[in-house]
């Protein structure tokens, strides 16, 4: 029945289309009918994945990273200041920061691999959030091993704070990878994916504002108590606020079923080698890492800069900083240009004009937002429809990001020596001014160049087949 005179369509339930000879016109009509049948055979799941997400789904998803964001903001903004305030040397404080970043980086690799194998993103997210909430207060608390051993040696303090920093970052990494990996598994609609990332970044800015508001309140109301108590209350309030949003996320966001759907009988898991052979993987990795260097280094040294270089009051520690493929690159480049201009202003700004820093911080916030949203969206473009390896991609890129930021912050903080001696360095600029102004600006320039050379696939949907029949 299926001899050379017949052409079978892809739909097993469709009729056979008999070809009247070997004419090109008849063959073309038969191929069009086959293409239409393939379109009609699109599974309900695939059709659902292409539908735009509703506002409630986007908002509930965006709230899921609030705990991570507010604790991360506190980590990068106040950890080095806190550790030096309680008596650690800048070198020891840098070791604590590096230990946390390394723990974070290595955890992302293993967490991503396990999530690709077993799925259950919400379960991973909940477990990581619990670990973050339990351990973060100890990062800004007193030295637990020192109390147990009855001694306050600098080595024991460094080990104690490094241990809790590592535990906190393990939970943070698990939550981050689970949350980021859900974007590609929740929808295949390009606009919805960008909306999810944008909403996530909007909650990041809300978290930053909330932290600085909490910090300003604590520094104002608790002036008569020790620094240790002030930071402890900042941690407690931040954890409580972030945990409320985690509950909203867990209740309002459905568990993506794409891991089960994408691991179809005809598909196998994507190996690591597949990603390592793609040039775009390295380009996105470099852009994302440089973007994170820009945001993290600037956040870590902002408090030092406004207090010691610009000689602003202590309350200024609560200062706030914060589709198609060609549009992604355009917006990313715009953010990079804003950061380059901000970096130039930071390097040249004299202390007598320190109030100008409030205006510069607004520009920095806009630059960080543009670069963060677009760089994470580029990760989504890289993954595309290859959902079987999406957690590995997000995990491996986060690994490079965390290790690079940890090393950079360790080097910069180690070179400070003491807070007062850091005011005079080579070329007349302090390490703090150099780290906050030049390093992010240079990373912004390099990342913009790499982004320009990217050959990002078009994120628009493929045209429908039916119009060909008109």
UniProtKB/TrEMBL annotation:
**Regions that span the bilayer:** 123-141, 161-181, 202-221, 233-252, 279-308, 328-349, 356-378, 434-454
Molecular function terms from GO? symporter activity
Q: Gene3D superfamilies in the record, alphabetically?
A: MFS general substrate transporter like domains
**Keywords assigned by UniProt, alphabetized:** Membrane, Transmembrane, Transmembrane helix
Q: What SUPFAM superfamilies does the record tag this protein with?
A: MFS general substrate transporter (SSF103473)
Database matches in Pfam families? MFS_2 (PF13347)
Question: Sorted alphabetically, which InterPro entries does this protein's record hold?
Answer: MFS_2, MFS_trans_sf
According to its UniProt entry, one GO biological process term is: carbohydrate transport
Q: Coiled coil where?
A: none
**PANTHER family xref list:** MAJOR FACILITATOR SUPERFAMILY DOMAIN-CONTAINING PROTEIN, MAJOR FACILITATOR SUPERFAMILY DOMAIN-CONTAINING PROTEIN 12
**Entry's family note:** Belongs to the major facilitator superfamily.
Highest taxon, organism lineage: Eukaryota
Instruction: Specify the taxonomic lineage.
Output: Eukaryota, Viridiplantae, Streptophyta, Embryophyta, Tracheophyta
Q: What's in the GO CC field?
A: plasma membrane
* Full protein name: Major facilitator superfamily (MFS) profile domain-containing protein
């Amino acid at each position: 029945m299926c001899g050379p005179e017949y052409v079978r369509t892809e739909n097993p339930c469709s009729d056979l289309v008999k070809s009247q000879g070997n004419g090109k016109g008849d063959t073309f009509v038969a191929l069009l009918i086959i293409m239409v049948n393939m379109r009609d055979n699109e599974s309900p799941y695939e059709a659902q994945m292409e539908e735009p997400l509703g506002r409630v789904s986007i908002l509930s998803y965006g709230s899921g990273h609030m705990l991570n964001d507010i604790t991360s903001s506190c980590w990068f903004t106040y950890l080095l200041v806190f550790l030096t305030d309680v008596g650690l040397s800048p070198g020891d404080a840098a070791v604590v920061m590096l230990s946390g970043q390394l723990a974070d980086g290595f955890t992302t690799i293993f967490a991503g691999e396990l999530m690709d194998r077993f799925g259950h993103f919400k379960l991973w997210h909940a477990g990581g959030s619990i670990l973050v909430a339990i351990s973060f207060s100890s990062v800004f608390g007193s030295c637990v091993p020192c109390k147990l051993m009855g001694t306050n040696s600098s080595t024991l303090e460094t080990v104690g704070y490094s241990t809790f920093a590592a535990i906190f970052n393990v939970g943070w990494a698990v939550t981050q990878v689970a949350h980021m990996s859900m974007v590609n598994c929740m929808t295949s609609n390009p606009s919805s994916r960008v909306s999810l990332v944008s909403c996530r970044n909007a909650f990041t800015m809300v978290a930053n504002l909330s932290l600085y508001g909490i910090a300003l309140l604590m520094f104002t109301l608790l002036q008569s108590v020790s620094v240790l108590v002030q930071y402890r209350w900042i941690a407690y309030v931040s954890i409580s606020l972030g945990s409320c949003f985690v509950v909203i996320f867990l209740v309002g966001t459905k568990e993506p079923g794409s891991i089960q759907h994408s691991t179809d009988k005809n598909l196998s898991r994507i190996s690591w080698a597949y990603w390592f052979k793609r040039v775009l993987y390295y380009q996105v990795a470099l852009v994302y890492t440089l973007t994170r260097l820009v945001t993290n280094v600037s956040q870590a040294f902002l408090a030092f800069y406004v207090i010691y270089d610009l000689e602003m009051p202590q309350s200024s520690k609560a200062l706030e900083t914060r589709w198609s493929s060609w549009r992604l690159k355009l917006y990313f480049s715009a953010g990079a240009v804003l950061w380059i201009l901000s970096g130039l202003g930071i390097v040249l700004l004299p202390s007598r004009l320190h109030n100008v820093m409030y205006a510069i911080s607004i520009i920095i916030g806009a630059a960080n937002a543009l670069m963060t949203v677009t760089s994470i969206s580029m990760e989504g473009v890289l993954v595309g429809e290859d959902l079987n390896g999406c957690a590995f991609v997000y995990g491996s890129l986060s690994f490079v990001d965390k290790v690079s930021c940890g090393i950079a912050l360790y080097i910069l903080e180690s070179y400070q020596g003491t807070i007062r001696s850091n005011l005079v360095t080579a070329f007349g600029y302090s390490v703090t001014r150099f780290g906050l102004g030049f390093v992010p600006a240079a990373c912004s320039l390099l990342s913009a160049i790499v982004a320009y050379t990217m050959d990002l696939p078009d994120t628009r949907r493929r045209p429908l087949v039916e119009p060909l029949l008109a």
